[in-house]
Write a structure and sequence with these properties.
Largest sheet: 10 strands, parallel
Strand order of the largest sheet: 1-2-3-4-5-6-7-8-9-10
Order of helices and strands: EHEHEHEHEHEHEHEHEHEHEE
Structural class: alpha/beta
Shape: elongated
Strand content: 5-15%
Number of helices: 10
Number of strands: 12
Radius of gyration: 21 Å
Length: about 300
Amino acid sequence: MVDTSVLTLDLSDNWLQGEGAAAIAEMLKENCCVSAVDLSDNKLGVEGAKAFSAMLLENTTIVSLQLSGNEFDDHAAKYLADAITANSKVEILDLSYNMFDDKAGEILGMAIAENIGLKELKISWNHFHSQGAAALAKGLGANTFLKVLDVSYNGFGNSGAAALREALKANNVLEELNIGNNRISVEGALHIAAGLKENKTLKRLNMTRNPMQSEGCCGVLKALQANSGTGIEILDLPDIPVNKELAELCDAVKILFPNLLLRHGGNTKLQRKSQLKVELRTQPKVVGNSQNAVS
């Protein structure tokens, strides 16, 4: 008898490896109730990717799939790409903390371009660099369903940022993009800025931990100034020293877009959504007994 009351399956951090993944995949092929599966940190490897890809070609109920930290490499990417291309039911997919390289970026990029179901994709903490990053960005540009993309902690660099520029120009669906810690310098930041000038749908952009310097930050802010139809609501910039030009640009942008939450590292002077949010962030922390507040 099938237990129809189980909707979420969490087997994370169990070292199931490929053999265990195959057994779970066989069960999920016939299961019509479980909609959320978490198999993070299980060392599934290539065999696990192969088993789950086959399962996803048949399963029509899984909506959320967490597969982070499973030692997936470029070979595993081939199997996962088949599933991403064919499956239109999975809306949330987490492939972060794996071992994907540039070849995987090319393979997955093509799959992302063809996918018609994913709404949120996390693929941070991998090894995508210029070539792989460009392929992923190209896939994003062609995708018309994805709303949230996290590619932070990779190595997109300036060439990857150039590809994202074109993706931001073409894509009219994506709402959240995290490109934090991707070795994006001033040149790369200006590429992103060029894309932002034409993009109308992106609501949240995280660019923290990139060596953009003040010049790069200014370029991004100037792009927002030039785009009256921008949808940006939250912008996270790197934590760098603020020079006069950057400070003045921040003030000008805040006047132009009063509802924009502009965060610059830990500098609350550059944050503006409402005075309440600022006050909440600056409240003293309470450690232990509430009578012993530490200011």
